[in-house]
Design goal:
Structural class: alpha/beta
Strand order of the largest sheet: 4-5-6-7-8
Distance between the termini: 35 Å
CATH topology: TIM Barrel
Number of strands: 8
Order of helices and strands: HEEEEHEHHEHHEHHE
Strand content: 5-15%
CATH superfamily: Glycosidases
Helix content: 25-40%
CATH class: Alpha Beta
């Protein structure tokens, strides 16, 4: 048996058995914020994901999280489930998505969620992931990159507030979208973004039997240290207070560059 076959069997067998023991398909789904009692037609109920020095664990059993990036804002809503089902059949059990500040606050102070196209329907996406039986890693930024304009930051933020831009030693701006994380104005704007998006994420977490098990703050942080973690969690209170109800995480992929 080759490694690919083993991993697939491990994912399908180990994860599915753990989820069943955790009442993944519970008869009565949990009731969370903003939602009344749901029907009992086999709506998945998700067990929390924990981790230790060796592996992720669901109901104390070691599991792999096979995750694929699935950006709801880049895929027509009608295709969400059609693409999730084959992914799960192939052994996937988790999807990760950015939640672009750039799209959800197109004008300063105007936060937009929902809609028929799916481009802005974060909650609709989380509901479909739940129905498909897939965990979700939510990635609300503020930085995201992912080939989004302004690295996922709002255009109005980068263009209208040049004082936020990080500077080189010669005084020139690094990039239009490279802002200073210690600038009080940036922290003020980012706090408003998190105040809108964090409650949405929180309502769909494993705390309520729903699919969001992990959150990622920022993306590709450079110079990742314990001090960096302390800094960002003290300035973004929802992270340190864990108001999303999911396990917070950080990405330090730039360390390899």
């Amino acid at each position: 048996m080759n490694r690919r076959t083993f991993n697939k069997l491990f994912a399908l067998g180990g994860v599915s058995s753990s989820l069943k023991e955790g009442s993944m398909m519970a008869e009565a789904a949990a009731v969370g914020p903003g939602e009344g009692r749901m029907s009992t037609d086999a709506i998945p109920r998700f067990a929390p994901v924990h981790f230790d020095a060796v592996s992720y664990r669901i109901n104390e059993k070691p599991v792999y999280l096979y995750s694929g990036k699935f950006h709801y804002f880049r895929v027509p809503k009608s295709d969400w489930r059609r693409r999730m089902d084959p992914f799960r059949e192939a052994g996937g059990n988790c999807v990760a998505t950015y939640i672009p500040w750039y799209l959800h606050e197109p004008e300063e102070g105007k936060f937009v969620f929902g809609g028929e196209s799916g481009v802005l329907d974060l909650e609709g996406f989380l509901r479909v992931a739940r129905e498909a039986g897939l965990y979700v890693m939510a990635r609300p930024g503020p930085y995201q990159y992912s080939e989004i304009n302004y690295a996922g930051l709002p255009g109005w933020l980068c263009e209208n507030y040049p004082e936020l831009r990080a500077k080189k030693l010669d005084g020139d701006s690094v990039h239009t979208e490279s802002v200073s994380y210690i600038h009080p104005l940036f922290l003020e704007k980012a706090r408003k973004w998190f105040n809108h998006v964090a409650p949405i994420i929180a309502a769909h977490t494993v705390s309520y039997g729903r699919p969001v098990a992990l959150t990622q703050l920022d993306n590709e942080m450079t110079g990742y240290t314990s001090g960096t973690v302390r800094w960002i969690t003290t300035r973004f209170p929802w992270a340190s207070e864990n108001r999303t109800g999911a396990t917070p995480g950080f990405c330090a992929s730039n360390l390899a560059k």
